[in-house]
Specification:
The complex is a heteropentamer of chains A (310), B (516), C (252), D (277) and E (355). Helices cover 32% and strands 23% of the residues of chain B. By secondary structure, chain B is α+β, with helices and mostly antiparallel strands. In chain B, helix 11 runs antiparallel to helix 13, helix 16 packs antiparallel against helix 18 and helix 16 packs parallel to helix 19. Classes of the chains: A mainly alpha (310), B alpha+beta (516), C alpha/beta (252), D alpha/beta (277), E mainly alpha (355). The complex binds adenosine-5'-triphosphate (2 copies) and magnesium ion (2 copies).
């Protein structure tokens, strides 16, 4: 078994790193492996990945992990207990609820928000940006004007106004954040598309008779995707913070949902004497967004060799 | 550190939208107006069931109970230096009624209209003002209403100098704005202080009125600094950056109480917190359900924590201190009983309802706690947070399920609350009187009539009895779950002398304060 | 006279008022290898790109095998007839696609079904075994990349090949290999070449006739024999010829 | 007389993910006041040799040599600051592409003056005068105007002349030119070479001329080094190019098409593994 | 040769004149469409918000008929497109209506509160740039080193921490516990009436009037929120600086500069940074614009009477005129800053000057 491992390992590595792959699969895996090697050489990035994986696990197993109910508290008996006392590891909040359990369940909301925003905003931005960059002319004009309008808006204020219009709630917060966060993606995708648009390899594809749709979707988008992934990952932190900001202003998730930003907002009143009520969720936000940032940073280095240098 | 001749209060006054006493109807404005304008009469600070003269030296009421004649004190002056005459008083009434802004109904309920006001409220001579009402109301009711800020006397000369001409329309038949625009931010009064400046959500600055007819305030200046957060007020108070913190929450109140150099004071206010069940919702309309909700609030726990020090549990619709107010507290958290009632209503498995909650404390905290106790009986409560205007818009349109909020008496008379909780002559969507009963689509049936009857009852004891009855009925069957009565608290630097909170916002006087 | 593979008359291309091509006319018969030389910026690439539909030409006419085209609209028939190889082998291959994918694309666009066979054959033809099939372009040397680019151009079996300085980015030794490969392909398939280069030697090696361009104009068209005989009409061509001889020291 | 430059067993290697890459593997040569050409295919280590002499090799690379001396001074042993003082003053280098080798946001004149001011104590006006004179020396017609232009405002040929002016303004004794003309048009190429040639002759500099164009090098230089895979495989006088011995050099000469020639197909170079040894 | 050069010159100057007019027109078009879009979106939001604007004017406790009358006065019963036309017409003349909250014209309010925000954002950006640029340069030069990692972590934390949370903690620490800084607002109440601001930028005003005690007090007020915003802008600026510097340091002209014998210091701080400054200007401008907006949360926490607080307050009071006016102003400032950074870019980068 071990002997087998010893011999299998180097060959697998060699197989992956081979200069002359023998199949599509090998080529693709090899490329991923190279990226992974780049990525994993960066200890901070791996730490980020670890945080995100931990977040995922916590979210999945929240029911098992949480020691108490995140919603039912003991107003009379366990209000504002400091960390560690009464079997509450991170203390309790003003409703007498276990903060740890709320944080654990809140991870689901955090994931819900970032994933949803990412799958709404990123594709919109990608399509708008690549189409506008490739088509040029009036299409570009119209799309970019629209993008500019959204960019010219103060993001948080627009989100606030939108939530005010749609009614508070986590779904609407997601929608508002998504609506305000696609323009930068469109800008990035467009800028990248512009640099590729006149390159010889795109000219070559055009010369094969590929339709503009085909060029945009099969040849340009894959090129934009890696920087988009990086940007989205880095933005996840910003999304978490915006969602928390909306929660903080009372426009995000509704009580009793244990949304971290809302938890800070309600804990803010006790910041002077019961620091943990606002402190713990703030710390959770910090850790998770740091995780996303580290991950994105590492991905950028791994995916974009120019950033990383040699 | 605050200056020696200046009182600095940290105060959340984001509700101020105008300073015109004929227009303003907000709690914070009431305090500002009360300190800067004078009225004919005022509540007796020592016994709030009595009314004493302020500008009025004395008054008489005709035998038919329709005519009130006020005699002004001699030699009164406005801050501007103009003399105060009965003419000014009549003008103040006239403009309030003609402007017809939010608080105007307080006067128009006596039958005053834009067409008859010059007849019904007029100066008999230099110092005699005569007011004629349309029915023989209980005098205590009329006089109580006249202590509200809408009856503040403004400086006619100054106001009319600054009035703007307007084009009359169907809605507004007059060619002048009666200085409304000027008074929104300006001042034309005769109180102990004059208003120097108001910057919305920032600051209100009062300065000593040297023409004040009464005892002159000791401080030269009072600054209300807008601070929304309790913790911020506490910080600033502890650091000496403000002298008074006005919106302390229980935790911070506790903390400053223990702090050296800081004292606290409190006064019960006429504001009640309640949640109400919209009777348009079939489930909420069932009597058993209404009763069950009253058993599903953990009054004691809330009282000991969330509103500790800032409110006292109160289950009737009249705040303590008003005529006829009852102190009954029959309800306690009793999940078993509530379940039983729900089962009787055929809702043993529970149901889902929404509650509109404005996102401030302690309402949100209470809502969250109620959410938990309701859950124990199988009722799933979805909280819809919103800012004040938002929830209120919905509430006024009768689109809510449950609304949690507060009600403050418009004037210091039981009719104010009785009218809103038990008066609803037309329960259709087109109903004109949008009282709380109407907003919750509750038809109080004969209570409506009783409420009106109480208004004309001259005998205070009998009048009180009617109100007691009304309260009992609402307590038993009304769709209102009354929670607590507000106690206003303030933490203040013990360098202050004579700092006190009054029984209502228009009695939170600052002119008595001095500093070491 | 034999039929024209490519017939260009009075072609004009402008970029924001700058005339990159100024009434250029060329007639290239089927099967000929035609060279274009000229200094940098003289419009050589612009000419090829205008033919290929990558640049718009404002006026003039273009006929390919008798079919007329204008602007930058081209039909599928055109792409089956005309293909192009670019100057920079590093920039002409998609950085995220394997060789396999690169070669598959034209076949997929034109609906070929026997893709496996064709890809294998195309790789063989340019002297790269199937071992290169799943490499990414960064795993290839410059010469290998240019071979892939040629394979990609040939896989649709075009009749006319536009070559924009296909060897100028390569070493002399590799240049020879590529030139040989191109010659071979031309011979096997009877292709028509239009080849741009700034190296007269390369042109004379590869072509039968050539045009000399300067500032967007064709200043002279001549045959390779004339070039070898130094039988040139303009000073400019003469200057180019001198330059290609190498450095000559004028002893003071 | 000691030669201007002595290179003995120069080695440059780079650590990479797949191990050490030896870019230069034991290069030996000496240089007097002459024109030495280095040719070789891409990646054969020409540039790295030149950069190692200048001290411009990236930090993470390893450089060793038995001897790397400029006159008597040992370049490898001297302090970084001392070596810096040599650069631009005594030893200069011209890079391949003028478009990227000039600071895009700095006027040309200031870039030339900067070299002067770094190495000599000169007043502004004197520096300017010398810079203008230098521009004139590289046959720029309107030096006063060009002095204030930015790099993007001049053509490639002019840019390369400016590069030369910038590097020669301090009058170095040794000039390394790394493919100084391969980015230029053939016609312009010759003009630039003529200028370079004139300056070398007039100032008596030593010149290392790096190029991949064997024909150009042999017509321009006195002596030619042929590099292959990091080594010098052959050294010969330019005039005796046709007598080259090494099969690589011969192959290289052979595979070039000629205007007159009519060989189809062209002979190609078959690389032999033993050349790398 | 010379002929060619003059030709290039001629072509360039010919193109220049028409390009200038073209780009000017384009630019105007951009501004106008963006502005109209801004107005359309704000109008839409304003009408969709489920808050009765009439309520905002008359207050919570107004009787029904008063609300009804005000609705009509506001023109809320007109058809939507008519309202839109009126809205556009007013907005284009800079009239965003009257704020019901303050009873002042919205423009007057904004003119009063905006300097506070600008002052705060400016201090933040100055702090951010002052520390961020050198840190970024250091990280790029010592890339991969310990210092680089530290700078990276400082930056990443800046990106990750909720500003309202950090602000609260900072307030507790520096104001409540250490008493190093002042709070709340911009200036102590003591000076409120002895000090008359002229420009609205208190630091500037107090310095110009040589009221150094006021200056000190203003400084003590602004330093904490300013530093907080500064940290965020530092995070952004240092990262971007690093990446731009890495890019510049790998350019050939850097090799050429070394070949000239220049010292590393000069190469890094003069040549490379001067080039990196070109895109960096845009980054700093963007971060500045971001701070103008991002101050919403900071201003809330520090009771800073700026535009952010004004908008949040107005929003909570359904003062839609003020919200939309403020939004449009911030949007306009965004546009203006973008234009400004564009102009700066052109000034700094000679390559774009002749275009
Ligand atoms: N897309 C474009 N926009 C503006 N000008 C262009 C464009 N493409 C080419 N030009 C200009 O047109 C002229 C001719 O360019 P072209 O690329 O055809 O030259 P070339 O002869 O191929 O030169 P080289 O030998 O350098 O490749 C040049 O001056 C170039 O600047
Ligand atoms: N920073 C580096 N890291 C790793 N390897 C390098 C580095 N720089 C150069 N090399 C390697 O050193 C070898 C020699 O490079 P060099 O630049 O000297 O070649 P050259 O002869 O100048 O080629 P060209 O004609 O293309 O300029 C090459 O194989 C190259 O891959
Ligand atoms: Mg070209
Ligand atoms: Mg080289």
């Amino acid at each position: 078994m071990t002997a087998n491992d010893m011999t299998a390992k180097p060959t697998l590595r060699q197989w992956l790193l081979s200069d002359r792959p023998q199949s599509r699969r090998q080529a693709r895996l090899g490329r991923l492996y190279v990226i992974w090697r780049q990525f994993s050489a960066n200890r901070l990035a791996v730490l980020g990945l670890g945080i995100i994986i931990a977040l995922l696990l916590v979210a999945v197993f929240a029911d098992v992990l949480a020691p108490h109910s995140p919603i039912q508290g003991d107003l009379r008996g366990a209000r504002l207990l400091p960390p560690g006392s009464g079997g509450y590891l991170l203390g309790t909040d003003d409703q007498g609820r276990d903060i740890l359990s709320r944080l654990i369940h809140g991870s689901r909301l955090t994931l819900f928000v970032v994933v949803l925003v990412a799958i709404i905003a990123a594709p919109i931005g990608l399509i708008v940006g690549t189409v506008s960059g490739y088509a040029g002319g009036w299409v570009d004009g119209v799309l970019m004007r629209t993008t500019d309008i959204f960019l010219a808006f103060p993001k948080l204020v627009l989100a606030l106004a939108l939530v005010a219009a749609l009614g508070p709630g986590i779904e609407n917060a997601v929608l508002a954040i998504a609506i305000t966060s696609w323009p930068p993606y469109a800008r990035i995708a467009r800028a990248e598309t512009m640099t590729f648009r006149n390159s010889d390899y795109i000219s070559a594809v055009r010369l094969m008779g590929a339709s503009p749709m085909r060029i945009v979707f099969f040849h340009i988008m894959p090129l934009c995707i890696s920087s988009l992934i990086v940007r989205v990952t880095l933005d996840m932190a910003g999304i978490i913070l915006t969602a928390a900001g909306l929660g903080f202003l009372g426009l995000g998730a509704q009580p009793p949902l244990p949304e971290w930003g809302a938890m800070i907002a309600s804990g803010r009143r006790f910041i002077l004497d019961q620091w943990w009520v606002a402190g713990m969720p703030g710390f959770a936000i910090l850790v998770v967004s740091l995780g996303f940032n580290l991950l994105g940073d590492g991905l950028r280095d791994a995916l974009d060799p120019k950033e990383a240098g040699q | 550190v605050t200056p020696a001749d200046t009182l600095v209060e940290g105060f959340a006054f984001d509700d101020i939208i105008t300073l015109d006493p004929g227009e303003a109807f907000e709690l914070s404005t009431a305090e500002v107006t009360a300190n800067t304008y004078s009225k004919l009469v005022n509540l007796d600070m020592n016994d709030t069931s009595k009314v004493v003269g302020e500008l009025a030296d004395s008054w008489t009421i005709s035998d038919d109970g329709l005519t009130y004649t006020f005699k002004l004190k001699p030699g009164l002056k406005f801050a501007s230096g103009n003399p105060i005459t009965a003419e000014d008083v009549a003008f103040s009434f006239e403009r309030a009624v003609k402007l017809d802004k939010s608080p105007a109904f307080l006067l128009t309920q006596f039958g005053l209209t834009g067409d008859n006001i010059t007849e019904k409220a007029k100066a008999a001579d230099e110092t005699t003002f005569v007011l004629t009402v349309d029915k023989a109301y209980a005098p205590s009711f009329v006089l109580n209403v006249l202590t509200s800020t809408v009856a503040s006397v403004v400086d006619k000369k100054l106001v009319m100098e600054n009035a703007k001409p307007v084009t009359p329309t169907d809605e507004y038949k007059y060619d002048t704005d009666f200085g409304n625009e000027y008074l929104k931010t300006g001042y034309a009064g005769s109180g102990p202080f004059k208003i120097r400046e108001w910057r919305a959500n920032e600051v209100v600055v009062l300065e000593r009125n040297d023409n004040f007819f009464g005892e002159k305030p000791k401080l030269a200046r009072v600054i209300y600094r807008h601070m929304k957060e309790s913790s911020g007020q506490r910080l600033a108070l502890e650091n000496g950056d403000i002298d008074v913190a006005r919106n302390l929450e229980p935790g911070d109140l506790d903390a400053v109480t223990k702090k050296e150099g800081i004292a606290t004071t409190s006064a019960p206010k006429g504001t009640l917190y309640y949640f109400s069940l919209n009777q348009k919702n079939e489930k909420l309309a069932k009597p058993e359900v209404i009763e069950a909700f009253k058993y599903l609030v953990d009054y004691d726990a809330i009282g000991e924590t969330l509103i500790k020090g800032i409110g006292s549990i109160h289950q009737t619709f009249l705040p303590a201190g008003q005529l006829g107010a009852l102190e009954d507290k029959p309800y306690k958290l009793d999940v078993a009983k509530a379940k039983e009632l729900l089962a009787k209503a055929g809702l043993a498995d529970g149901f889902t309802v929404t509650m509109d909650v404005r996102n401030n404390q302690p309402v949100t905290g209470i809502a969250e706690n109620v959410q938990q106790t309701l859950a124990q009986a199988g009722i799933k409560l979805e909280i819809i947070p919103g800012d004040g205007k938002q929830t209120l818009t919905k509430y006024r349109a009768r689109q809510h399920d449950i609304y949690i909020g507060q009600w403050g008496s418009d004037y210091f008379d039981p009719n104010s609350n009785a009218e809103t909780f038990t008066f609803n002559p037309d329960n259709s969507d087109e109903g004109k009187n949008k009282t709380l009963a109407w907003r919750n689509a509750w038809d109080p049936k004969d209570l409506t009539v009783k409420t009106q009857a109480a208004l004309l009852e001259k005998d205070s004891a009998k009048r009180a009895a009617i109100y007691e009855d009304l309260q009992k009925q609402v307590l038993a069957t009304g769709p209102f779950v009354m929670l607590f009565q507000q106690i206003e608290v303030a933490g203040y630097s013990d360098k202050l002398k004579g700092f006190k909170l009054g029984p209502s916002f228009d009695t939170n006087f600052v002119y008595t304060v001095s500093k070491d | 006279m034999t039929a024209s593979a490519l017939s260009i008359r009075n072609m004009v291309v402008t970029f924001d008022e700058f005339r990159a091509l100024d009434t250029v006319s060329l007639e290239i018969p089927v099967g000929e290898s035609f060279g274009i030389v000229g200094e940098s910026g003289s419009g050589k690439s612009t000419l090829l790109r205008a033919v290929a539909g990558l640049n718009r030409f404002e006026s003039g006419s273009l006929e390919v095998n008798g079919r007329a085209y204008s602007g930058w609209r081209r039909d599928h028939e055109f792409y089956r007839t005309v293909q192009m190889v670019f100057q920079d082998p590093y920039g002409s291959l998609h950085p995220r696609q394997t060789v396999d994918r690169l070669l598959l694309e034209p076949l997929a666009i034109h609906g070929f079904t026997d893709t496996e066979v064709r890809i294998e054959r195309a790789l063989d033809e340019v002297g790269l075994g199937s071992g290169f099939r799943f490499r990414f372009s960064h795993q290839l040397s410059g010469g290998q990349r240019q071979r892939i680019a040629i394979a990609r151009a040939l896989i649709l079996e075009p009749k006319i090949l536009l070559l924009d300085e296909p060897t100028s980015a390569l070493d002399a030794s590799i240049q020879a290999e590529i030139l040989n490969l191109l010659e071979q392909a031309r011979r096997d398939r009877g292709l028509t070449f239009v080849m741009v280069s700034h190296d007269l030697a390369v042109i004379s090696h590869m072509c039968e006739r050539l045009a000399v361009m300067k500032s967007g104009k064709v200043v002279e068209t001549l045959s390779v024999e004339q070039l070898r005989r130094h039988d040139v009409a303009t000073d400019y061509t003469r200057k180019l010829m001198v330059a290609s001889e190498g450095f000559v020291r004028h002893e003071a | 007389m000691t030669p201007l430059l002595t290179v003995e067993n120069l080695r440059v290697s780079f650590p990479t993910r797949t191990g050490m890459v030896e870019a230069v593997r034991g290069v030996n040569f000496t240089l007097g006041r002459e024109r030495l050409g280095i040719v070789g295919e891409s990646g054969s280590g020409k540039s790295q040799t030149g950069r190692a002499i200048m001290g411009l090799t990236p930090k993470h690379a390893n450089i060793t040599a038995d001897r790397l001396a400029f006159g008597e001074a040992d370049l490898l042993k001297m302090q970084a600051s001392e070596r810096r003082r040599l650069r631009g003053k005594k030893i200069a280098m011209i890079l391949q592409d003028p478009k990227y080798s000039l600071n895009p946001v700095m006027p040309i004149g200031r870039q030339i003056m900067e070299t002067l001011k770094t190495h000599e104590k000169v007043s502004r006006s004197e520096a300017k005068a010398r810079a203008l004179a230098m521009l004139e020396a590289v046959q720029i017609r309107d030096p006063e105007r060009v002095f204030n232009l930015y790099p993007h405002e001049v053509s490639g040929g002019m840019g390369q002349r400016i590069m030369i002016a910038m590097m020669l303004v301090c009058g170095p004794e040794l000039l390394i030119a790394d493919e100084p003309t391969s980015a230029l048009d053939v016609t312009v190429q010759l003009e630039v070479l003529a200028i370079l040639d004139k300056l070398v002759v007039e100032r008596g500099m030593g010149l290392v001329f790096i190029s991949h164009d064997l024909r150009l090098v042999s017509s321009f230089c006195d002596r030619v080094l042929v590099m292959y895979a990091g080594r010098v495989v052959e050294e010969l006088a330019a005039s005796r190019l046709s007598e080259a011995q090494h099969p690589y050099t011969r192959g290289l000469l052979n595979c070039l098409p000629k205007i007159e020639g009519d060989r189809h197909p062209l002979p190609v170079l078959e690389r032999q593994a033993e050349w790398k040894l | 040769m010379a002929l060619m050069e003059t030709k290039i010159e001629a072509r360039r100057s010919g193109a220049r004149a028409s390009a200038l007019i073209f780009s000017l027109l384009r630019f105007l078009l951009t501004v106008v469409t963006t502005y109209l879009g801004l107005l359309a979106v704000t109008f839409f939001i304003g009408r969709v918000v489920p808050i009765d604007p009439a309520l905002a004017i008359v207050g919570d406790r107004a009787p029904a008929h008063v609300v009804e009358r005000v609705r009509e006065e506001l023109g809320l019963n007109l058809p939507l497109y008519e309202q839109f036309v009126i809205y556009i017409r007013q907005a284009l003349t800079g009239d965003f209506g009257t704020s019901v909250l303050t009873t002042n014209p919205v423009m007057t309010d904004i003119r009063r509160v905006f300097p506070a925000t600008i002052e705060l954002a400016t201090v933040g950006t100055l702090i951010g740039a002052f520390f961020g640029v050198p840190l970024g340069v250091l990280a790029a030069v010592k890339r991969g080193s310990f210092a680089d990692q530290i700078v990276r972590i400082i930056g990443l934390i800046g990106y990750s921490v909720p500003i309202f949370w950090l602000g609260l903690l900072a307030l507790v620490l520096f104001y409540a516990k250490l008493k190093w800084v002042a709070y709340p607002g911009r200036v102590d109440i003591v000076y409120e009436y002895s000090f008359t601001p002229v420009t609205g930028f208190f630091l500037l005003d107090s310095a110009m009037q040589r009221q150094w005690d006021v200056f000190r007090d203003v400084f003590r007020h602004i330093i904490l929120p300013g530093a907080l915003l500064g940290y965020f802008s530092l995070a952004y600026i240092s990262r971007m600086t690093r990446s731009f510097m890495l890019n510049e340091l790998s350019q050939e002209y850097i090799v050429a500069a070394r070949a000239k014998g220049l010292s590393e210091t000069r190469i890094i701080w003069f040549h490379a940074l001067r080039n990196a400054a070109v895109p960096l200007i845009t980054v700093i401008a963007l971060s500045y614009a971001g701070l103008l907006e991002g101050s919403v949360l900071t201003e809330t926490i520090f009771s800073w009477p700026g535009l952010g607080l004004y908008i949040t307050n107005s929003l909570q009071n359904a003062d839609m005129n003020a919200v939309l006016g403020g939004t449009i102003i911030i949007g306009s400032v965004f546009i203006a800053i973008n234009i400004l950074s564009d102009v700066l870019y052109r000034i700094l980068d000679p390559r774009t000057r002749s275009r």
